[in-house]
Structures are given as structure tokens and as C-alpha cells.
UniProtKB/TrEMBL annotation:
Superkingdom, taxonomy of origin: Bacteria
Gene expressing this chain: fmt
Cited Gene3D superfamilies: Formyl transferase, C-terminal domain (3.10.25.10), Formyl transferase, N-terminal domain (3.40.50.170)
Membrane spanning stretches: none
Name this polypeptide is given: Methionyl-tRNA formyltransferase
GO cellular component annotations of the record: cytosol
GO terms of molecular function: methionyl-tRNA formyltransferase activity
Pfam family name, one: Formyl_trans_N
Keyword DNA repair belongs to the record: no
EC class name: transferase
Keywords, ordered alphabetically: Protein biosynthesis, Transferase
Amino acid sequence: MRLIFAGTPDFASLALQSIIAAGHEVALVLTQPDRASGRGMALRASPVKELALASGIAVLQPSSLKKDFSAQEHIRTLGAEAMVVAAYGLILPQTVLDMPTFGCINIHASLLPRWRGAAPVQRAILAGDAVTGVSIMQMEAGLDSGPLLLCESLPIAAEDTAATLTDRLALLGGRLIVDALAGLPLPPQAQAEGGVTYAAKIDKAEAALDWRLPAAQLARCVRAFNPFPGASCAVDGTLLKVWRATAIAGHGQPGEILAAERSAIVVACGEGALRLDELQKPGGKRLAAAQFLVGTPIAAGSRCALPVT
């Protein structure tokens, strides 16, 4: 099948890899413009662009498909049978949605209509969902509201972070999109009218741990914000990243450090306590709590700052 692929991050590159391996002709890859990143702020290509170039596929990087009429015309001339979209990050105007024979097909990392929007993986973990999955959806103008072509569920493990769960969903998405393309045209199924939730984009301000919340909720925050933006807390004026944490029994004033010895840093929460298992100082490496305490002594009885609300 002659396809166009639109995507940007690693999640999308795994889908593209599966499509290439299945023998489809990818006539064009759309991905977001190169972004400055790293300490040197050098321009870096997206994972999808890197894979496309390595596979000899033409790449187009418009900053907006709504305003770039030359990009729209180029897409039109390719005569694609379908466009596959996965975490592209740009809005597709109706004119583009209508161009391919079978329209535009989205790989979405949730069981729609739950968690429509930009951050379905993180929001599922934050909410304490036990199950998520991948939906293959026929795209329309509404936000992730189109009819479903295929769906498959995936359990969320107790230790899953946004990174590990995204990786597993990406593999599932790659398999499902190949199945969907092989079966086109598939009978569309309208999404359920009830149970719609929205996965708003993650705001960095959300990453500040609020010790007034229950420990179980804060443990989910740590998992959901790993790797981005990284849960954080301030101790004695130093902002620390918390990469792994466990909810345990404990009691004290929210933010009070109940223990900081051997391999344990335990902080009282609104309900229970949070054991900080892996931390990072600004400019430092991620360290297990035992190693962290060797270079950064913390006294029991000191406090983690409460975020301003």
C-alpha cells in the first residue's frame, strides 16, 4: 500500500519501523521541524526523521499544515492510499484528512474515548488506571473523536513509568497498525458517548510534589513524570528530581523527613509516607538513595518544601 506517515517521537518511529517491515511503500514522512536540545542546544532531528532518512524515505517538516499550502499540494500529488499518524504534534486540516483514499488513520495510546488528547500515557498512570491500550482511529476534525477501527488493551504494571508504558504501547501500536492496513477498508465503530476524558498536555508545574497529597498519589506522580518533566521537591533550598519512589506506612506533618539513613529517605505525606528510592541533584547523576546520602547528608526532622498553591 502506498502511504504517507506523520509522526515525531520514539513512539511513532516504532510504528514506522513496523510499517516498513511489513513491505508498505512509504512515499513521504511528515515530522516536526528539528528542535534545539542538550547542553549545547544543537538542532536535533526527531526519531522519525532519523529512521526515514536511514530508510531512504523523503521527509517534509512544515511548521504548520494548516498554513503551508505548498506542503498540502505536495501531499495531494503523491496519491497516497492512506496517511498513518502517530504522535505527530501538528493539526491536520480537513483538506489533508480528505486526501488519501482511505483517509488518515491515527495510532492513539489509550482506549478511546478515555484519555483523548496530548498525554494519555501520563494521565492514565496519574489516575491510577489498571488498564490502558491502543486505539486505531479514523481521523476527523474533532480531537481524537473519530470512529475506531481496531483496539487492544494492555495492563498497567505497578512499576510502570511513562517511559516503560510508552515503550510497550508503541510495540502494540506497531502491530495493530499493520493489522489495520492489511484489513482496509475496516468497518468503523463509533466511540462510546459516555466515559470521555481528556489528557491535557503535561505542565512542568505539575511535577512539584505536594506533600499534602496521599503517598499513593505521589508515587503515581513520580512514575507518570518519568522521564518528563521529572517529579521534583525542594530540600533545604535545593531542588531535587525524584525518579523512583514507593508509598509506605508512616505519619508526620506533610513534607517532614521521617528518616534519612542507610538506604531510606522517607517523607511524610497527607496520608502515609513516600520512600524516595532514586534522586538527582542539579547537574548530577541519578543515584539510589543510599549513594545519594553519601554525598548529600539529609537530617531526619528537616522538611521538604510545600509547593505554593
